[in-house]
Amino acid sequence: MAGNSFGTLFRVTTFGESHGAAIGAVIDGVPPRLPLDEAPIQAALDRRRPGQSRFTTQRREPDRVRILSGVFEGRTTGSPIALEIENTDQRSKDYDEIRDKFRPGHADYTYWVKYGIRDHRGGGRSSARETACRVAAGAVATLVLGPAITIRGALIQLGPHRIERARWDWAEIGRNPFFCPDPVAAADWADWLDGVRKAGSSAGAVIELVADGVPAGLGAPVYDKLDGDLARALMTINAVKGVEIGEGFAAAALSGEDNADEMRIGADGRPVFLANHAGGILGGISTGQPIVARFAVKPTSSILTPRRTIDIHGRETEIVTKGRHDPCVGIRAVPVGEAMMACVLADHLLRQRALAGSVPDGP
């Protein structure tokens, strides 16, 4: 099975299955002599950890991370950093009834068609459990980016219900279980998602990511565009079905005058943009403005409502997916999206540093 790695200079390979002994990541390309221990990685994992509210899966995984290599006396050595997260709360028997059935909306059928075998225990490699590895790698990527670059994510839509942007407050993100910047919307969502959960159904979501402090010049034409790599990274997250940068699809309804990010010279003699419809990226290269991206997550496919399907023997049947599942997997996708953005930016930052000295300084 190929396709378990991403990145060029900052390169991440993840391993493990949902109900295997452990999951983890190997991160190559981290510069030497950077301070690193488990604490910042654990803090990132704790934000994604399951079982923290009634709105996420009740699988009780502590997600304790262990650094296996690449760090000596509290500093990175420049060699690959291996991270391990033990699985401790698997209930594989929950999936015994569906071992031969394909769950609609899941990767069961496509994995079986491609490989002739599938791990029915929670989806195996296709499980969202794998995203813990990305969050761990994202914590290391944040170290590479340094304190000048900050990445924050927020849930801006739950099912058909959107936030009111006039009430946006980043401080609210940590005060509710939805990573929601709108306290009024978060209260409304709690009641609504309770109904969805009790009905045995699920809901989708839209997450917005904002990266501040990104320098101008990251990314490259034509096939190494920063927004292209970012979109690809976000699309690899489980259940993601759409990505947009800046205005995204809304730009199609704007006029050329409205969509143009006009420019002036600031008091310090440097360029100043009067708008950011492009989401901080033009021609695949960062402008120095905040990078803004959004991604849409489909409703969790594991639901208690009976659905029609087939099995591996070609027989028509019905299926009910039992076990412990998120009524909205988009909630815990917020820290995953932040991590993927961090990995992409760290990769492009290292690539830009490798290029430094061969091109003149910008304006």
Characterise the protein shown here.
- The protein is 24% helix and 22% strand.
- It is globular and about 70 Å long.
- It has a 5-stranded antiparallel β-sheet with strand order 1-2-3-7-4, covered by helices on one side.
- A hairpin with a 5-residue loop joins strand 2 and strand 3.
- With 363 residues, it is of the alpha+beta class.
Short characterization:
The chain is of the alpha+beta class.
Strand content: 15-25%
Write down how many β-strands occur, each being a DSSP E stretch of 2 or more residues. Answer: 18
What do the pLDDT scores average to? 92
Quaternary state of this entry equals single chain
Q: Radius of gyration, Cα only, in angstroms?
A: 21 Å
Topology as a string of helices (H) and strands (E)? EEEHEEEEHHEEHEHEHEEEEEEEH
**What is the count of DSSP helices, taking H or I runs of 4+ residues?**
7
Low-confidence runs: none
- Taking the alpha carbons of the first and last residues, their distance comes to 46 Å
Spatial order of strands in the largest sheet = 1-2-3-7-4
What form results from the Cα inertia axes? globular
Which percent bin holds the helix content? 10-25%
* Largest sheet descriptor: 5 strands, antiparallel
Structural class by secondary-structure content: alpha+beta
